[in-house]
Design a protein that fits this description.
The chain has a domain of about 80 residues. Helices cover about 50% and strands about 5% of the residues. It has a two-stranded antiparallel sheet with strand order 1-2. It is elongated, with a radius of gyration of 21 Å. The N terminus is likely disordered.
């Protein structure tokens, strides 16, 4: 049986520019942006921010493993000769689903940019008010 080539589900664009290969510097910048959005002290990212940044830039999907929904006793049957079962049908990708995923990706990126810029502007105003009020 032939295996289908998996297409990378990672980001394609960022700030309306082609993303290219994700580098550690890109993950660092994204983690700092997430820290700003979450109003972390001194814009310092937490380990969760780093994981979120890496996930956003590489997979674009939530980091949820469906196997975790199964009880431990059902995750793996160590007894050989277990009963057979039919594998799930994997739908083929068509031009419509690819277009939809690109639009969703663009909307997510725009939302991230708006949150980052809005939070950064709010923090700037708070600092200005704090300095002028002293």
């Amino acid at each position: 049986m032939k295996k289908r080539n998996q297409i990378s589900d990672g980001k394609v664009t960022e700030h309306s520019r082609g993303l290219g290969t994700v580098t550690p510097d890109m993950v660092t910048q994204r983690a700092h942006e997430i820290a700003v959005i979450n109003r972390r002290a001194h814009d310092k990212p937490t380990p969760e921010d780093w994981q979120e940044a890496k996930r956003e830039l590489t997979s674009g999907r939530p980091a949820h493993d469906p196997v975790e929904d199964l009880p431990v006793s059902k995750r793996w049957d160590p007894v050989p000769g277990s009963t057979a079962h039919r594998a799930d049908t994997v739908p083929t990708e068509d031009e419509q689903t690819v277009a939809e995923s690109l639009v969703e990706s663009g909307l997510e990126e725009a939302e991230h940019e708006q949150m980052f810029e809005g939070t950064r502007e709010s923090v700037r105003r708070d600092r200005e008010l704090g300095e002028s009020g002293s």
